[in-house]
Specification:
The complex is a heterodimer. By secondary structure, chain A is mostly helical. Chain A contains ten helices and no strands. Chain A has one domain. Chain A starts with 15 loop residues before the first helix and ends with a helix. Chain B is of the alpha/beta class. Chain B has one domain (2-250): Rossmann fold (3-Layer(aba) Sandwich), CATH 3.40.50. Chain B has helices at 40-47, 71-74, 90-100, 106-114, 130-142, 160-175, 187-193, 211-218, 221-237, 247-250, and strands at 2-11, 14-24, 29-33, 55-60, 75-78, 148-152, 179-184, 196-201, 204-210. Chain B is globular. Classes of the chains: A mainly alpha, B alpha/beta.
């Protein structure tokens, strides 16, 4: 007599593909997602072009100049990551989300995967566009950098990856803190301000600060810091730890 | 069948739900009645796995909500407050939930038509009136054509026509042999909608009966309800600060 046993409900179980499709529709159906990413890309390119126009000679790192707009754009990617999680709580959407996908770890994994894929794609596109636009805007007979030069391709690719990794750090923070203003304050204050400040008084730590890692990765010649790939790994570790803590809290707390 | 056994939830010093046990059977509308703050919403949140009970269990066809294979195709829940992002259209909201549940996209347009939101389906849901928002929540609950429907205060914000519509909807779903569990603090609405009643006060079970039986007890359903919950209010006085029952200001004749 239990009506649940009717054959209308198919056998099996929701899995990652269903959760990811749900999260993809949620992410793409918000105008704010596209506005934020468009502003990020436009600002990064614009700054690269402005720096290019004002470059007087070829003595500096022209690749790093063209990518000068990446660091501010990373902040927006981080904020977008925070909002992807905190807006669920602000508007009560989390109830509909978890009613559909009660497995909270699976949900966060799907959300992070979809978010990372989108921000990586937009981040790489932005980095390459900024690189070529910044190079094309060079005057005074300076020849633009090319991807074939030592360290250049790596700098451009890692800049793009920075968007996804800082974005994932924002997502993890959002899952931990759940309130938009608090999470953004911790992201900006912690990742940008406090970390830079601590590193300022303890220079040995500078190599481990997220923004320094990306800044270092964007240059073709490295300061004696972490190698660009080690830096990328460390950023991924930060994001992974924040997401793991966020996921653990998500399964423990009431929604 | 839904089986709650010893369901208990504590928020700090407040015992919101206190060893609640009851069964909900298919084929009838079961009302969940109690003053505001008596633990109805908390109980329903535990039913769909949003809140974790401190003790006890609630099972739907012998499974916890988290064990369901396709939750939205088995249980449709309208919880008390809005559960959608205001920047998303009604259509996109439902499309996301459908995708997460393996429900064909065509079903989204079907439920939008069913709740009368088809003409505003592409509008941002943040622009919706309270009544339209409530209809979107009902659409989400019906999306998976589930055998179990849980409605927490579904008539909130609906106009008289909407109230009649949801009442008819619930009764027809029950008539099809589904489980319909609906909470309210409005006794008059319960008298019109429900067949069975589970009455709680201060998180405790006060009555598990039929509307007819309870009404017969004190002449009217309202009198019977007030007598029942007056007892729980007294009981309440000796407990840590729970919410004050506010039914006195909201009682209807």
């Amino acid at each position: 007599m239990t009506a649940i046993a009717t054959p209308r409900v198919p056998p099996g179980h929701y899995r990652f593909p269903q959760a990811a499709r749900m999260e993809w529709i949620k992410l793409r159906s918000l105008r704010s997602t596209w506005w934020t990413l468009a502003i990020t890309a436009a600002a990064a390119t614009g700054i690269g072009v402005a720096v290019g126009l004002n470059t007087r000679n070829a003595s500096g790192d022209l690749t790093n100049n063209a990518l000068a707009g990446i660091a501010p754009g990373l902040l927006l990617a981080g904020v977008l990551g925070v909002l992807a999680m905190t807006s669920e709580y602000t508007f009560g959407m989390i109830r509909a989300t978890l009613a559909t996908i009660p497995d909270r770890r699976l949900l966060l994994t799907a959300k992070a995967t979809v978010f990372a894929a989108l921000t990586l794609a937009i981040g790489e596109a932005t980095a390459f566009i900024a690189f070529f636009a910044g190079g094309a805007s060079l005057r005074h007979g300076i020849s633009p950098p090319t991807l074939g030069q030592p360290g250049v391709l790596q700098a451009v690719v890692l800049s793009g990856a920075g968007f996804a990794l800082i974005g994932l750090m924002g997502l993890g923070l959002g899952a931990i803190v759940r309130h938009t203003p608090a999470a953004i304050a911790i992201l900006v204050g912690g990742v940008y301000v406090v970390a830079q400040f601590i590193a300022g008084i303890t220079p040995a730590l500078m190599a481990y600060v997220p923004i320094s890692i990306v800044a270092n990765s964007m240059a073709t010649t490295q300061d004696p810091m972490l190698s660009p790939w080690a830096g990328l790994g460390l950023l991924a570790l930060y994001a992974g730890v924040l997401l793991a803590v966020g996921g653990w809290l998500l399964t423990r707390r009431d929604a | 069948m839904i089986e709650a056994r010893g369901l208990t939830k504590r928020y700090g010093p407040v015992l919101a739900v206190d060893a609640l046990s009851f069964d909900i059977r298919p084929g009838v509308v079961t009302g969940f009645l109690g003053p505001n703050g008596s633990g109805k919403s908390t109980t329903m949140r535990m039913m769909v796995g949003l809140d974790r009970p401190d003790a006890g269990t609630v099972r739907i066809s012998r499974r916890r909500y988290g064990e369901l294979g396709w939750p939205l195709r088995e249980v449709g829940a309208l919880l008390e407050a809005k559960a959608f992002h205001p920047g998303r259209s009604a259509r996109a909201h439902l499309a996301a939930l459908a995708a997460g549940s393996g429900i064909p996209a065509a079903r989204v347009d079907e439920v939008l038509g069913l709740v009368g939101l088809d003409s505003v389906a592409r509008r941002r849901a943040g622009t919706f009136s309270l009544g339209m928002a409530q209809r979107l929540g009902i659409a989400a609950a019906l999306l998976g054509d589930p055998e179990v429907l849980l409605f927490d205060e579904p008539v909130n914000g609906l106009d008289p026509e909407g109230i009649r519509w949801i009442r008819t909807l619930m009764r027809s779903f029950a008539a099809e042999g589904r489980i319909v569990f609906v909470s309210s603090h409005l006794i008059s609405e319960m008298a019109l909608t429900a067949d069975r009643l589970i009455v709680i006060g201060a998180g405790r079970l006060l009555a598990d009966t039929t509307v007819a039986e309870l009404s017969a007890r004190s002449g009217s359903l309202e009198d019977a309800f007030l007598e029942l919950t007056a007892g729980s209010a007294e009981h309440n006085a000796g407990r840590p600060a729970t919410h004050q029952p506010s039914y006195r200001t909201e009682r209807t004749s």
